[in-house]
């Protein structure tokens, strides 16, 4: 809902634009205001325009975030169902093996297969996590900031080491 000013919202009950038009005065009108008055009007209009654009962006992002949250929730439910149904697959596999082996041996074999699979996946995950390194370039860049002198930063930077934001 919009507040008295019409620009700010409280909550996400509806996802429609809170500002339906931008309150600007006619640009082609002849004004007898002073330069200061014109600058004041331009500042007020720019402020209104900026607030309107921010409100529009908030409204659009809130709607998209709601869609994303619903999609993520549905993926979570699907994953949970798949996880629980995997129990039935392993139970089926054990019952199938019990056609040729004793029932206890079939379930033991399936148990060993599941533990071995979990161990392999844990090993692969551990190796991937172990390969994660520190952000060396960021640490180096932050270290260089300590030695910079205001007004002389461009002299210390070499064109080969310049990044996107330096």
UniProtKB/TrEMBL annotation:
Q: Which residues cross the membrane?
A: 68-92, 104-126
Where does the source fall among the domains of life?
Bacteria
Sorted UniProt keywords: Membrane, Transmembrane, Transmembrane helix
Xref: InterPro entries: Phage_holin_3_6
Give the protein name, as stated in the record: Phage holin family protein
Organism source for this protein?
Answer: Corynebacterium gerontici
Q: Could you read off the lineage of the organism from its UniProt record?
A: Bacteria, Bacillati, Actinomycetota, Actinomycetes, Mycobacteriales
């Amino acid at each position: 809902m919009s507040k008295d000013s019409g620009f700010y919202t409280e909550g996400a009950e509806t996802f429609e634009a809170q500002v339906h038009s931008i309150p600007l005065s006619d640009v082609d009108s002849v004004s007898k205001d002073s330069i200061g008055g014109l600058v004041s009007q331009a500042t007020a209009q720019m402020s209104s325009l900026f607030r309107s654009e921010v409100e529009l962006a908030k409204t659009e992002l809130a709607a998209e975030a709601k869609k994303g949250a619903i999609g993520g929730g549905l993926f979570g439910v699907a994953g949970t169902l798949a996880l629980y149904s995997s129990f039935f697959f392993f139970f089926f596999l054990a019952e199938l093996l019990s056609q040729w082996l004793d029932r206890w041996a079939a379930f033991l074999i399936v148990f060993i297969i599941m533990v071995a699979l979990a161990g392999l996946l844990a090993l692969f995950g551990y190796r991937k996590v172990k390969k994660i390194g520190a952000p060396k370039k960021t640490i180096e860049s932050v270290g260089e900031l300590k030695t910079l002198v205001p007004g002389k930063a461009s002299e210390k930077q070499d064109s080969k080491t310049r990044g996107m934001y330096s």
